[in-house]
Amino acid sequence: MKIIPSILSADFSRLSEEVRDVERDVDLIHVDVMDGHFVPNLSMGANVVSALKKSNAVKMDVHLMVEEPAALIPSFIEAGADMISVHVEACRHLHRVIRMIKESGIAAGVALNPATPVDWVRPILDELDYLLIMTVDPGFGGQSFIPSMPDKIREAAQLIDTRKQHVAIEVDGGINTETLPLCRKAGASLFVAGSAIYGHHDRHQAIQGLLKSSTSSTGPLKRK
Ligand code: DX5
Ligand code: ZN
After folding, report:
1. Cα 180 to Cα 176: distance, rounded to the nearest angstrom
2. How many angstroms separate the alpha carbon of residue 172 from the centre of ligand 2?
3. Active site annotation includes 21
4. Candidates 21, 25, 32, 35; catalytic one
5. Is the CB of residue 141 below 6 angstroms from any atom belonging to ligand 1?
6. pTM of the entire structure?
7. Rounded to the nearest whole angstrom, what is the distance from the C-alpha of residue 46 to the centroid of ligand 2?
8. 9 CB less than 6 Å from ligand 1?
9. DSSP assignments along 10-64, one per residue
10. How far is the CA of 160 from the centre of ligand 1 (A)?
11. Residue 82, Cα to own-chain centre: how many angstroms?
């Protein structure tokens, strides 16, 4: 399993130091790219990836929350992205987009909004390196985990398992020491966490706490 800090919750005025602060604990960071159309927010572009590549050693997991991302993908590949995910809801020609990412030699993922059924990726599952199951509606950090998402993760894990495929399940949104074990138990192995890491002064301790929580026994999440 891997913990992947999302820099959306980091201090943008000192991004490189914020990344350095987690580098001894993780080998990947998560970069949220928002276009103000697919999601109601704007964040950062390929120039941030390329700047961080120059100053930091960590690998970059780029999450594209943009409409029709094909035109932007080459700039993220050139900037040094190591993994790129696109939203199934944002791509008219999803298979072509995935091929485009894979042909550049980096890992390709597809993200599903909470209300999008797992079935939507069934026909292209064998093309994927990872499936990103959003556990909040994308667009903002610090939102509450949607309690029905572990069932969806379980459904995706079973589908991957019956097909004997090697597709990792990544989760993103509201991941903390309470929700991480639920997702882990359901079959996720890549855990994106923004506020649960950057919302704490001691990032090392926050990451260790998340890692430790993965083995804690879990009851059902209390609905708020
Ligand atoms: C939300 C982004 C997430 C966000 C997660 O649209 O995709 O990666 O940074 O933040 P937390 O962990 O605070 O929910
Ligand atoms: Zn994200």
Report:
1. 6
2. 6
3. no
4. 32
5. yes
6. 0.96
7. 15
8. yes
9. S-GGGHHHHHHTTTTT-SEEEEEEEBSSSSS-B---HHHHHHHHHH--SEEEEEE
10. 25
11. 13
Largest CA-CA distance found in the chain, in angstroms, rounded: 46
Ligand 1 atom with least separation from CA of 199? 13
Atom in ligand 1 nearest the alpha carbon of residue 137? 6
Per residue of the chain (224 residues), give pLDDT as tens.
999 999 999 999 999 999 999 999 999 999 999 999 999 999 999 999 999 999 999 999 999 999 999 999 999 999 999 999 999 999 999 999 999 999 999 999 999 999 999 999 999 999 999 999 999 999 999 999 999 999 999 999 999 999 988 999 999 999 999 999 999 999 999 999 999 999 999 999 999 999 999 988 766 665 54
Contact 160, 123 (CB under 8 A): no
